[in-house]
Amino acid sequence: MVILQQRETKSEVMIAAVDLFYTKGYSATSIREISARAGVNVATVSYYFAGKQGLLEECLVAFFEKYLGVLEKVANSEQLQHNPTRSSMMEAALLLIDFQQQNHRFARFAWREVTMDSQMVREMTSCYLRKEQYVWKLLLAQDIEKGISIKISPSFFLIQLTSMISMPFLQSQTIQELWNLNPSEKMFTRLYSNILKEWFLGVTCESSIVLR
Amino acid sequence: MVILQQRETKSEVMIAAVDLFYTKGYSATSIREISARAGVNVATVSYYFAGKQGLLEECLVAFFEKYLGVLEKVANSEQLQHNPTRSSMMEAALLLIDFQQQNHRFARFAWREVTMDSQMVREMTSCYLRKEQYVWKLLLAQDIEKGISIKISPSFFLIQLTSMISMPFLQSQTIQELWNLNPSEKMFTRLYSNILKEWFLGVTCESSIVLR
């Protein structure tokens, strides 16, 4: 499930880029700095990626492809093998939290990029976000068929659910600094998953559904 | 309650700066561009602010001072005039959502800056975030005295509450693009406040408390 194998040069470059883009911002980061941090020469970076923009795009694609993959897998497996006692949405939500914990640098970086309104990033991510929205609507429909009903407006429900899934990673800095909790640790995500389940039970009706 | 009077030159420069910092990022924005957007000359910007960094700091201070002001007012007024049938935390939460709706550009900008780990911004904001955390703990204590009990861990409760308060403004781009909802409009914040109340009732015990 981990996006990249640490050993590969290309992966090392992407990890260095994600860290630097995150800390310094995209425009303030140079290919030279990325190469230095990854311990490779500038020519290697140019060989693997078409410049800085290509590198940014590839990092975002790496994250969103895997993220969507997790989501789609739940939707598909539910269609193949209907499980009436388990919420598809919560199944997906908990897997996505685990996935992000395992790839917390990428998650933190990707979600912050999404809050920007730089045209380049938006053109790239809006396609993924639309796909994500589509799959959530599918999962919601599956849950409704299982007899789960949502007490609040479906749009607001999905906005809240998706933002709760990304929140610990987007705000990991603040959570660490103020609360001494670390969203990149398994301990945190286990507790946080329980919070999410509590919330889900509060805004839905149907007590017979088992949350993983 | 609105942070700045539109008419003043200084305010116009700050609004232009917030928009450009938000869209292009801090490093990619020049004083020249800010001046051009505000319709003033470069010397005027230098006269009012000590360079680009001074401008960034002043924009963040303007937001967080007012934000904290709203929060502290609720805590203080509760100490002066105890109201046992109203949750102090929800009172503050709903006022903060209104405040941010009225200052949505500043809110969107400030919360995104907080997700960055640029040292300059963090040194500045961590002081405000600590103060904010302190006041929330006060409000929580006031609510506990009123007989409200929290079903989940207090830390996770406050993390979730504060992130729900900033979320629509931090993620306003995505919400607009995917859901055709606009967090800068009063209509949105009214609906969103109800969602927050639903959540609060779900994670607390005490049905006699009136939510504004």
Largest sheet of chain A: 2 strands, antiparallel
Secondary structure tally: strands of chain A: 2
Beta content of chain A = under 5%
How does the overall form of chain A come out from the CA principal axes? elongated
DSSP helix fraction of chain A:
over 70%
Description:
Two copies of one chain form a homodimer. Chain A is mostly helical. In chain A, 75% of the residues lie in helices and 2% in strands. Chain A contains ten helices and two strands, in the order H-H-H-H-H-H-H-E-H-H-H-E. A two-stranded antiparallel sheet of chain A has the order 1-2. In chain A, helix 1 packs across helix 6 (104-115), helix 4 (51-80) packs antiparallel against helix 5 (88-102) and helix 5 (88-102) packs across helix 6 (104-115). The model of chain A has no long low-confidence stretch (mean pLDDT 88). Chains A and B meet through helix 1, helix 6, helix 7, helix 8 and helix 9 of A and helix 1, helix 6, helix 7, helix 8 and helix 9 of B.
